[in-house]
Amino acid sequence: MNAGKKQYEQIPIPEELDRVIWDSIDRAAREARRRRLRRWGLSAAAVFCAAFISANVAPLYAYAARIPVIGAVVQVLHVGSGGTRADGVHAGAAAEGETVEFYFESRAGELDTAPVYTVSHLFAPNRMVLTLHGVRTIDYEAIRESLLAAEAVLDVYRAMIGDDSMCGFIVVLNSGYTYELTEHTDPAGLSVRFYPDPAYQPEQMVYYLRSEAMPYGEGLGLLAERYPGKAAQLKTQSGEYIITVGQYGSLAEAEAALRALEETSEDASGLFVASGTADEVPEK
Amino acid sequence: MGGVVSKAQFAREFQLRRRKYYRIAYSYVKNEHDALDIVGEAAYRGLKNLHALRAPESLDSWLTRIVVNAAVDYARGNRRVVPCEDAVLERAAVQEEDLIPEDSLDLFAALDALSEKDRACVILRYFEEYSFPGISQVLQEPESTVKSRLYRALRKMRLFLEKGDTDYERGQETV
Q: How far is B91 from chain A (nearest CA, A)?
């Protein structure tokens, strides 16, 4: 081997290399977030004022005056949960291309950390389910419009949740798309970026447990509450709604899951196994 | 629409190849502190411009180019001795055998004799074992230019090692 190549390969790698790289990645992510916040700062101020007036809460300050703000990335995830416990939170959203920023506010002003949230990625059809805890008022139209502005998003609807300190959204994605969710602090924020997934398999069969279809209403919310943390709501092609529980790679797994659920919950008798391809919306 | 590589993918890929990026950076500045600065700057530039990447399979070439450019910028901003640049690249056809350095040629020690871009050619070809098309993709230059650069670089390195640092630098332009 050439002496130079040997020297090159023996260059010691310092322990700080990882930290230096993460610091730089965080810096770039913070700056990108700050640029986005600057762009939608003024419209966000209007939204906040309107939301607090309609909720009979005095507008506390001009949000735009506090921009620019710099957030720190807490985590980037696809499925999971995060945030810190809060109550009385107001949520809104703004879009930039394929990224949607959720922002959070309370009576005391802008939140430093995002409220508790859970996000899951389900198929048949391809969809993201986002649930926010401690959020009592939302600017749903802004959230819906922001999400629909992304090319990746096919449909958006709100989950029926009886608990008025929670809200949830079902974001149906076009075939081949996926997302990543980034949680920020200082100020609190959740950024959802949609992008094409090169490994997406539209023909992949998915098995799940589901209920009979029903109209959108309290019954739907009550049924979902029977399976806390497991149930998701879904709009069928006929416009009615069902709840789905779990997601499995085979019929046998789904049947085993149903049996296990029936053993632990007497209410599981109304569920049955269904299946569909990754993008398939149940007819009814 | 956003880029085709997510931030998480970017972070994963950059971390995966961090040793290579560090060694490339180190070859330019020959000290740990500056090499870390260069890699950090490359990670920052990469994520900041990630939306411009259109082909996910080019991510490594694209990141290597960013590391080389960050190293070149850093070296230009800090150097005191500027190696002589040939006015025009060699036009003569370069034979493959001309581009094989003999084992006695210590390429690493002689890197300092080269201009920043020539240095990148040597590092990628002889240390990272890139193909000519691979170097061409990283540096965004035709393969013929890459070969000419390497030919010229080897000649300079031989001269540098034969004459020694002191004699060689006497012939350089000082800034």
A: 28
Q: Which residue has the higher pLDDT, A120 or B166?
A: A120
To 10 degrees, the CA torsion angle through A204, A206, A212, A213?
A: -40
Same domain? For B27 and B110 the reply is no
Q: Report the CATH number at residue B139.
A: 1.10.10.10
Which pair of tokens denotes residue A19? 């930290």
Compute the Cα dihedral for A124, A125, A126, A128 and give only its sign: negative
Q: How far is B169 from chain A (nearest CA, A)?
A: 20
In terms of residue numbers, what domain contains B61? 7-78
CA distance A248 to A29: 35
Cβ pair A60, A52 in contact under 8 A: yes
In a domain, B2, yes or no: no
CATH architecture of A205-277: 2-Layer Sandwich (3.30)
Domain CATH number, residue B48: 1.10.1740.10
A252 burial via Cβ count (<10 Å: 0-12, 13-18, 19+): exposed
- Which residues partner with A77 through β-bridges? A181
Q: Distance, in angstroms, between A277 CA and closest chain B CA?
A: 24
Residue B1 lies in a domain: no
User: CA dihedral defined by B94, B100, B105, B110, rounded to 10 degrees?
Assistant: 50
- Identify the CATH class of A19-64+71-196: mainly beta
Name chain A contacts of B41, Cβ cutoff 8 Å: 24
Measure the CA angle with vertex A113, ends A107 and A119; round to 5°.
110
Averaged pLDDT in 10-residue chunks for chain A of 284 residues? 79 89 80 61 43 35 31 83 90 85 81 92 96 91 90 94 89 95 87 91 94 88 84 95 94 92 73 94 93
For residue B164, give the amino acid letter. G
Domain end, chosen from B28, B55, B78, is at B78
pLDDT higher than threshold 60 for residue B1: no
What was the ipTM of the complex prediction? 0.79
Asked if B30 and B68 sit in the same domain, the reply is yes
Mutate to test the interface with B, among A6, A7, A11 (most CBs of B within 10 A): A11
Tell me if B107 and A198 make a contact (CB, 8 A cut-off). no
Tell me, yes or no, whether B95 and B46 share the same domain. no
Tell me the pTM. Answer: 0.51
What pLDDT score does B82 carry? 42
| CA-derived radius of gyration, chain A | 22
